[in-house]
Automatic annotation (TrEMBL):
<comment type="similarity">
    <text>Belongs to the type III pantothenate kinase family.</text>
</comment>
<keyword id="KW-0963">Cytoplasm</keyword>
<keyword id="KW-0630">Potassium</keyword>
<dbReference type="InterPro" id="IPR004619">
    <property type="entry name" value="Type_III_PanK"/>
</dbReference>
<feature type="binding site">
    <location>
        <position position="177"/>
    </location>
    <ligand>
        <name>substrate</name>
    </ligand>
</feature>
<dbReference type="GO" id="GO:0015937">
    <property type="term" value="P:coenzyme A biosynthetic process"/>
</dbReference>
<keyword id="KW-0418">Kinase</keyword>
<comment type="subunit">
    <text>Homodimer.</text>
</comment>
<keyword id="KW-0547">Nucleotide-binding</keyword>
<dbReference type="GO" id="GO:0046872">
    <property type="term" value="F:metal ion binding"/>
</dbReference>
<keyword id="KW-0479">Metal-binding</keyword>
<keyword id="KW-0173">Coenzyme A biosynthesis</keyword>
<keyword id="KW-0808">Transferase</keyword>
<feature type="binding site">
    <location>
        <begin position="6"/>
        <end position="13"/>
    </location>
    <ligand>
        <name>ATP</name>
    </ligand>
</feature>
<protein>
    <recommendedName>
        <fullName>Type III pantothenate kinase</fullName>
        <ecNumber>2.7.1.33</ecNumber>
    </recommendedName>
</protein>
<feature type="binding site">
    <location>
        <position position="123"/>
    </location>
    <ligand>
        <name>ATP</name>
    </ligand>
</feature>
<comment type="function">
    <text>Catalyzes the phosphorylation of pantothenate (Pan), the first step in CoA biosynthesis.</text>
</comment>
Amino acid sequence: MILDLDIGNTLSKWRLKDADSSEIRSRGAVWTREEWRPGADIPDLDVVESVRISSVARQAVLARTVSLLRHRVGGVHVARSTPEALGVTNGYEEPARLGVDRWMGVLAGYQLAGGCCSVDCGSAITMDFVLPGGRHLGGYILPGLRLMKESLKLGTRNVAIDPDSEAEGLLEPGVRTVEAVNHGIYMAAVSAVNRIYSEVCDQQGIALPLLVTGGDARVVSRGIQAPHAVWPDMVYGGLEACFPLTAAERAGRMSGAPGVPRPVSLEKIRAGLAFSMLL
């Protein structure tokens, strides 16, 4: 079995993948914490042959995790943000400072679609753009839904946004404080994503496929106006592309990869931008 770990600031997600069939056998998530304990926080390591890790947690958390795993597992592969990988040139002035989860998303998106916009809806909402030739432009970091709630000093209790909510309802004025908070936060998030996507496509003169991932991807995607695809395993896809361990991965197939969304024309994007500026 292959254990894939996506260690975030808030949640640490994992999945077990069969090394022979490339099937996903199980998956889960735990709160990111100082120390992991085998059997409680992560799967039984006795069945694991290799581990792949993407981590944005503090260095001490990653170091402890790697140390624990190397005592139990044969191969441990840790992803790093590099100046170039898999045909993509990192757009950061200091490439190592780009969050590795964003880098994995960019690499996965590029392997799937060529040039694209990758949106990760987690503790923060990040947007990264890479052009068809592999030039990563850099990106944007916005507060995520939960972070915006905390900034209002209302916490998350009783103000959770139902991921099955329809976007139309979330864009209406709230008639209770809970609704006003939810709808305002949602409006801020999706408006920013829509405007940033349109502005960058306009500036670069190209309509890019848009891919969405992260814990809040389902609800945020409902308000994204451009054609897009939700890819829950996009960070894992980057790990697969960087460290291919199965026959399917070596052939370039990433687990759970969606069909590439066909973007609207650049003319339509520009027309929408021009109309919004008139309002």
